[in-house]
Amino acid sequence: MKIKYSILSILMAAAVFPGCQNLTEDPKANLTPGTYFKTQSDLDGAVSAIYIQFARDGAWGFTNRSTSYFGSDDFTTDPGLNKEDFRLFDRLSGGSGNGSMVAQWQGPWQGIYQANNVIANYTKVNSTEEQKNQSAGQAYFLRALGYYYLVRTFGPVPVILTPIDVDDRPDRDPIEKVYEAIIADLQKAKELLPVKFDNAPGKADQMAARSLLADVYLTMTGWPLNQASNYAQAASEADAVIKSGQFNLNTPYAQVFTTNNGPESIFGLQYNVNGGLPLRSAGSSSVPLDEVATNGSSGWDDYYPEINFYKKAPKCKRTDDTFYTTLKLRQPDGKTFKLVSWDSPETHARHPYYKKFRAGLNGDGVSETETTINSINPSTNKVYDIIRYPLVLLAYAEASAMSGGGPTAASYAAINEVRKRAGLPNLTPGLSANAFRDSVVYERAYEFAGEFGVRWFDIVRLQLLPKIVAERSAEENPIPANTNFAQKYLAPIPVNEMARNPKWKQNEGY
After folding, report:
1. Dihedral (CA of 100, 104, 110, 111) sign
2. In Å, how far from its chain's centre is CA 408?
């Protein structure tokens, strides 16, 4: 792995984040191991550069951030077209040479390297202790976030916590050590960050750190660590966020995906088309190829849910707002549209799609009415929420039930808060711990359908691949008969990284 510190990233950060990060200055910090920042403006620019590394198009700005998560039932893709990279993982057949998967590896590492330089040098800056600590706290949070996605996606990775030479070739560390580093970083972030940043959407705060820590502890209870003792820690961290009273589910579900930084957004990456940083996984990416707008733009057909995942969805308002089931086919006159069902022979994929990702920010993705489509755009200003409040509520519900031998009244209250907003009745009382956990996992699947690996990571930690493959429709992209599911929970290390690190052993099955 080579360090690729970039002054361009810092300059982009100043242009893209002025409203959220208050970067009115011109950052001049050159992110190399031999240099450090002198002013708070330099430090602010360096921290914003970390966010940029995660948010950019070659990292988490496009659908390829989820390439290896296409093995989940909430993701599939076209059986043809130019979707081979996604389709291979959908068939549980992806390999180390997959070009789209590189974003899943490179994005977090670039952010980690930037964060390492901030953490190594922030104390030298001529500023107040409070300001320096807030900058460092964000760097610790973002470094933990990067490692959390890396370890869940690729398994053992090097734990690099200081700037290193470009020629260093560290070994892959055991998964346990990676999680130790993640927890240490998030505990440090909790210590340094304020409970809340006022008027600064996009900045990670103490509640973001605690929310992520709850999710980390919950993940550690399942495969491959299977540390059930961490249920209690997950419940404790989630409970602290709930009791803070900072977040709520008062926003209608559909509106969550057409507006930015609402009352349930705990941490989200900020995007700005004019600043050269678009989110390209809303709009065109989730729109059927069959749909063509009056201005001639069309959908990309990158991703949509599997048929049986859609069919098993609960009957409620949230489901109506999640899935797009009536396609608009432009007629020869170019102005009128024919409405057809998702499974009509007039559609080429015969799948439902995602409605909640169409609009982008108030229609800067797909601009449409009930019967017409005016335009379909691939670049939007929509914030991409990594952590929404329902994730915390459901983490608490599951963790509190599993740590105490069964669900409590508070466990039920947490999941029922999510269900109420969805338009569902309260969950059946009196469930066993395992039955309650399964109900939470089902709820999370549809609350977060299609959202950045949430469903896939539940499948991984609970080893659910045999179950979801058995329930898979014959209409989906076929999975080879001899597939070893146990070897598909981790993605392969990209081939270029294996070439740079000849002592590494590739993940099993690749």
Report:
1. positive
2. 29
Q: Give pLDDT, residue 270.
A: 98
Length of the chain: 510
CA atoms within 13 A on the CB side of 28: 5
Q: How many other C-beta atoms lie within 10 A of the C-beta of residue 332?
A: 6
Q: Which amino acid is at 458?
A: D
The pLDDT value given to residue 444: 98
Would you say 305 and 352 are in contact if contact means Cβ atoms under 8 Å apart?
yes
pLDDT of residue 35: 61
Contacts of 129-132 spanning 24+ positions with Cβ under 8 A:
131/40, 131/43, 132/40, 132/43
Per-residue model confidence (pLDDT) at position 162: 93
In whole angstroms, what separates CA 179 from the centre of its chain? 18
Per-residue model confidence (pLDDT) at position 400: 98
Angle at 160 between CA 463 and CA 213, to 5 degrees: 50
Distance CA 144, CA 280 (A): 25
- Give the tokens for residue 343: 């499974």
- State the distance between the two ends of the chain, measured CA to CA, in whole angstroms: 20
Kindly write down the DSSP assignment for every residue of 434-478, as one continuous string: HHHHHHHHHHHHHHTTTSTTHHHHHHHHTT-HHHHHHT--TTSPP
Beta carbons within 8 Å of 432's beta carbon, 6+ residues apart: 406
**Residue 270, Cβ neighbours under 10 Å: how many?**
24
Taking alpha carbons only, the member of 99, 101, 7 closest to residue 53 is: 7
463 vs 69: CA distance, rounded Å: 14
CA distance 179 to 225: 10
pLDDT, averaged in runs of 10, over the chain (510 residues): 35 38 30 69 96 96 98 97 97 98 96 96 96 98 98 98 88 98 98 96 97 98 98 98 98 98 98 97 97 98 98 98 98 97 97 98 97 98 98 98 96 98 98 98 98 98 98 97 97 97 96
Distance CA 372, CA 290 (A): 13
Between helix 175-192 and helix 129-154 the angle, nearest 10°, is 160
DSSP lists the bridge partners of residue 339 as: 328
DSSP sequence for 37-87: --BHHHHHHHHHHHHHHHHSTTTTSSGGGGGGGGGSTT-B--SSTT-HHHH
Alpha-carbon distance of 342 to 351, in angstroms, equals 5
